[in-house]
Amino acid sequence: MIEFRVLTLKRYGVEQQLVQIYPDPVARESAIRALAARWAEAFDGNSLVVLRRAAAKFDAEKDLARIKAKVLYVLSTTDRLFPASLAPEVVQKLETAGVDAAYCELASDKGHLASGMDAGKWAPVLQEFIDRLAIR
Prior knowledge:
Elements: H1 2-12, H2 14-18, H3 25-42, H4 45-57, E1 71-76, H5 87-96, E2 101-106, H6 114-117, H7 119-135
Parallel strand pairs: 1-2
Helix pairs in contact: 1-3
């Protein structure tokens, strides 16, 4: 489980996040392994099987027209799991389905972790989105 989590964290961009804190590659790798070990102790590996099966079978696209809420779609420029290149097609599909959707591209080097790690960078967009909801 630890090796799996190390690879996942690296795909999420944790190495870039830790470069300033741990400039030494060996120390950085040790920190990543410590993060992975804590996760592995707390996480049930069987959950991964269930999540993977759900992801493989779940198709939200057929139900897009059922979305009644306004949507703020945020992707990071360095996210390898959900790359920003997905945005045009997804936003188009949402709009075609009648969903009021806005998109924010988050310029960040934090990969998949960017929305939390660089929350301040897109906070104004979120605040504007929330303010527009309050007007109704």
